[in-house]
Every structure is written in structure tokens, then in C-alpha cells.
Amino acid sequence: MRVEPEAIEEAAKLLYIRACKVLPDDIKEGFARLDATETDATAKTILATMIENIGVAERMDNLLCQDTGIPIFNVLIGRNVQVDGWALKEAIAKGTARATREHPLRSSVVHPITRKNEHTSCGERVPVINIDFTDAERELRLEMIPKGSGSENGSFLQMLIPADGVAAVKRFVVDRVIQAGGKVCPPTIVGVGVGGTSDLCMHLAKVAATRPLGSRCTDAEGAKLEAELSEAVNGLGIGPQGLGGDSTAFAVHVETAATHITMNPVAVNIQCHSARRASATFTPDGIRIGF
């Protein structure tokens, strides 16, 4: 199966716009669960406003949030798929720029020193493009995540050592959620990376933060840590928008990687309540749009 750059470009454009407007079903269901269990009156009012905002965005074909974020694209390439790698990267950037200009969307991307905005949502090394491979036969999956700055500013890394133990991992995560407070627009998905190198650990935290609700860490110890941290975080009382309540996080997600015998990195990356994503799956039968 061959995937042409033109198809990638169109998909990238569509996914950026779709992700900014339509919240995935698992997040909507997450809101319903929090609303059903929340005991604080103010928190329930805030949750109701958030839920109404989701509906208004869909009914009016409008944006869920004014922050169109840093565009992130995750590409999974299966077996027997032909694609020009360089052309793929160019196509994603072109699709991103077209979505920004043709919709139009607010461009949130600037040069880090001059702060110049090209109004394309593109720049040096942006869109962020992560490419990996899967054993799926004749399939290419393109996932788009617009990562807003409010939640992305809730990113932290600590290089622990083995003697610190799992207790230090838990303490670091809980302390960082307390530090972030309402600035990350809770209820959130708290992504945690454990292991690897410093850069891999931060990437794992981002992967964890943008996983669908209801998914579980494939590592048994990581899944156990998810459950323990989810309970701990929702016992902090931070609540929706940091104004108190039970609903601080939809969940805590954990991703793990093997690491060096003398270190144990832990990273946190937080996703806000507008946990946006969209995907396109290319197969010989056509293109399937989803989340």
C-alpha cells in the first residue's frame, strides 16, 4: 500500500481542525463520570459549564478552546506501507499551515527568541512529528494532538536514583499536581513517565497524558501505580479549575521504559480538561477518521 503526500496533507489539515472542535467520546464519558460522583456544589457547577461548552462547540461548529496549541502529529507506519518519509513531514507541515490560514485558526507558534509569529502554526521543528512502526498490515495511522500551553506548562522532570524507591516517584507526581493547581485547567489527565533517559521519560509522560481514558499501562507495575496515583490525586481537593472538589483528574496514566541501573527518571506532563485529539487511519479500503 502506498500513501501519497497529498493524502497526508489533506488529512493533517482536517485533523487539526477536527481536534480543535470535537472532543473524543472517552473524554465526554469521563466528564459524565466525574459529574455523577462530584460532591462539591461549586465543582458540579463548573463541570456543568464545561460540559455545556463542549456541546456549544459542536452545535456551532466552533472551537473548544481559543488555544490551538502546539501541533503534535504521531505517525504509526505498519507493514508493507510505502511512504516517502521526507515528503510525509513536508505534507504534515503544509496541512497544518493550510488549516491555520484557511479555517482560519489562531496561530500559537512563535520563534522562541524573537517571538515572531508566522501565522502558520509552524516553525523550526514544529509541527512536532513522532514516527514509529507497528506490525499492523498495510496500515498507516496519523494522530493529531493540539497541546495547549496551559497544560504543557505543567511539565516536570526529576532524575531520581534507585535508592529513592517508588515512594519518591509517587511523592514527585503528587507534589507537581499540587504545584500546578488550577493553572492546568483541571480536571486533567496526569501523564507520568518512569524510566528511560531524561528525554525518553518526558516523551513517555506526554504519551501517557494523551492516551484515551479507559486505557491501561501495559506494564503490570505501571498499571498498579496508575490506580494508586489516581486515588491520591483526586484526594487532594484541588477540583475543577482549582476551585475545590473531588474532580481533580480524570485519571493518572503511566508509561514505563527500561532504564540504567544507577538512575530512575520520573516525568509529569499534564493534559487539560479539553483533552483534544483526532486521527486518520489509511488502509487499502480508504481513510477512516476517528479519535
Q: What does this 3D model show about the protein?
A:
The chain contains 8 helices and 9 strands. The protein has 2 domains: 116 residues, 60s Ribosomal Protein L30, Chain: A, CATH 3.30.1330; 123 residues, no CATH class. It is of the alpha+beta class. A 5-stranded mixed sheet has the order 2-1-3-8-9. A 4-stranded mixed sheet has the order 4-7-5-6.
- The fraction of residues in strands falls at 15-25%
Count the E strands. Answer: 9
Q: What count of helical segments does DSSP give?
A: 8
Helix content: 25-40%
Low-confidence stretches: none
**Shape designation:** globular
Query: Quick one: biggest sheet?
Result: 5 strands, mixed
- The chain-level structural class is alpha+beta
Overall average residue pLDDT? 97
Q: Report the radius of gyration as a whole number of Å.
A: 19 Å
Biggest β-sheet: strands ordered side by side in the sheet: 2-1-3-8-9
**Run of helices and strands:** HHHEHEEHEHEHHEEEE
Number of domains: 2
Q: What is the CA-CA span between the terminal residues?
A: 22 Å
Protein name: Fumarate hydratase
Organism: Neoroseomonas marina
Keywords: 4Fe-4S, Iron, Iron-sulfur, Lyase, Metal-binding
InterPro entries: Class-I_Fumarase/Tartrate_DH, Fe-S_hydro-lyase_TtdA-typ_cat
